[in-house]
């Protein structure tokens, strides 16, 4: 019994040893081969992303750069916090990627990049960064009321509350969409003021949309544009009036046809400060009645006055108007120039004149942007910066 037990146990022990040896031998050889094949190959491609992962207060214009060494990019995706994708394109040799649109301020971006080396071994990386929130904005504002109708001589004026250093960036960020395809350019009069117009007057009936994309533009060191918006306006009928100071007449054309000739009285030839400007201007604003105050015009000679004037259409910042003259005798109009530089049309006594007077009718039929040209005056040419008078600048210098 004991011998049998020992024999059996010995047999069992040999079996176990044999099995263990066999299993261990087989498993060890197989495990070594599988480990070699399962071990992931490391790509030689080295991806680089700027700004670095986790970067904050990044300037939108500093540039998002994605590149790869010892390989080629296969996929680049950049999205903002809303999931909107930043458009961009790979370089022809797939060594880099660049965005085709600027980044926005106060935004967080996620970057996903994939690449492969010469053997086709792939690699990828993910990163994110945040752009700065502007501490100072330029406060831009224009002279357009969205949805309004303006005359063919309208000039779009954009003004800033801070000096603009990068004017080219502003011009690139302000674009015009015109229904007739007319190109529009800007002209800077100083560091805070740029006017926009086409080469010739706007085409009657055309629609114009101004696209402002200034919010993420650094217009000066540490100062950003502040707004992204669109303004649309329609160009009304083509009304142009020509004042001849020598004949004391104003010829009114509509859509290329003379519709009326109105007797007027414009700037007197003496003293010099009463002379009317020569040149092309456009109506800046309309007022049923405006107080003409001599104290607001530096260097104006003669007696002081402060007089409510009816049917006033402003032509220059300095104070040139086409307005109703409700104090001169009717015999003056068409015969003499007696005004202090303005163009006077006959009107009736009273602060608001009469809607049935020549001045009242002309006023009722006028809109901001209508063209008024004065010729044959003894006065100087109007300064292009005075009102909407930029039409006097040749297109080649605009």
UniProtKB/TrEMBL annotation:
Name the InterPro entries on file: Big_10, LD-transpeptidase, LD_TPept_cat_dom, Transpep_catalytic_dom
Recite the UniProt keywords alphabetically: Acyltransferase, Cell shape, Cell wall biogenesis/degradation, Lipoprotein, Peptidoglycan synthesis, Signal, Transferase
Q: Which Pfam families does the entry mention?
A: Big_10, YkuD
Q: Give any GO molecular function from the UniProt entry.
A: acyltransferase activity
The record's active-site residues are 323 (proton donor/acceptor), 342 (nucleophile)
GO process terms (BP): cell wall organization; peptidoglycan-protein cross-linking; regulation of cell shape
Mention any one GO cellular component term assigned to this protein in its UniProt record.
extracellular region
Q: Which domain of life is it from?
A: Bacteria
Q: What metabolic or biological pathway is this protein involved in?
A: Cell wall biogenesis; peptidoglycan biosynthesis
Annotated CDD domains: YkuD_like
**Would you indicate the residue range of the signal peptide?**
1-21
The protein depicted here goes by the name: Lipoprotein-anchoring transpeptidase ErfK/SrfK
Q: In what residue span(s) does the L,D-TPase catalytic domain sit?
A: 239-375
């Amino acid at each position: 019994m004991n011998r049998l037990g020992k024999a059996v146990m010995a047999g069992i022990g040999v079996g176990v040893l044999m099995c263990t040896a066999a299993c261990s031998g087989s498993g060890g050889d197989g495990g070594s081969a599988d480990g070699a094949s399962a071990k992931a190959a490391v790509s030689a491609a080295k991806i680089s992303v700027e700004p670095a992962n986790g970067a904050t207060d990044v300037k939108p214009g500093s540039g998002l750069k994605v590149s790869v060494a010892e390989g080629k990019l296969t996929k680049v995706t950049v999205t903002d916090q809303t999931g909107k994708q930043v458009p961009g394109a790979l370089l022809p040799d797939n060594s880099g990627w660049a965005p085709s649109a600027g980044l926005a301020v106060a935004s967080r971006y996620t970057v996903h990049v994939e690449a492969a080396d010469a053997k086709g071994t792939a690699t990828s990386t993910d990163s994110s960064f945040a752009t700065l929130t502007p501490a100072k904005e330029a406060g831009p504002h224009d002279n357009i009321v969205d949805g309004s109708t303006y005359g063919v001589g309208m000039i779009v004026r954009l003004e800033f509350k801070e000096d603009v250093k990068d004017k080219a960036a502003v011009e690139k960020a302000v674009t015009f969409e015109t229904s007739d395809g007319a190109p529009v350019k800007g002209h800077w009069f100083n560091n805070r003021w740029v006017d926009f117009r086409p080469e010739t007057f706007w085409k009657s009936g055309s629609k114009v949309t101004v696209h402002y994309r200034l919010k993420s533009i650094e217009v000066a060191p540490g100062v950003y544009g502040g707004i992204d918006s669109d303004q649309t306006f329609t160009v009304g009928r083509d009304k142009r009036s020509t004042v001849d100071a020598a004949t004391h007449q104003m010829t009114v054309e509509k859509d290329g046809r003379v519709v009326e000739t109105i007797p007027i009285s414009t700037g007197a030839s003496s003293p010099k400060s009463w002379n009317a400007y020569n040149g092309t201007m456009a109506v800046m604003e309309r007022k049923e009645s405006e107080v003409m105050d001599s104290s607001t015009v530096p260097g104006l000679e003669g007696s002081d006055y402060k007089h409510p004037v009816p049917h006033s259409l402003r032509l220059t910042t300095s104070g040139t108007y086409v307005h109703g003259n409700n104090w001169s005798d009717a015999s003056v109009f068409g015969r003499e120039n007696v005004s202090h530089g303005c163009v006077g049309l006959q009107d009736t006594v009273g602060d608001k004149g009469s809607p049935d007077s020549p001045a009242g009718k002309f006023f009722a039929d006028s809109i901001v942007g209508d063209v008024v040209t004065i010729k044959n005056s003894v006065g100087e040419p109007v300064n292009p910066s005075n009102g909407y008078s930029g039409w006097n600048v040749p297109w080649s210098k605009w």
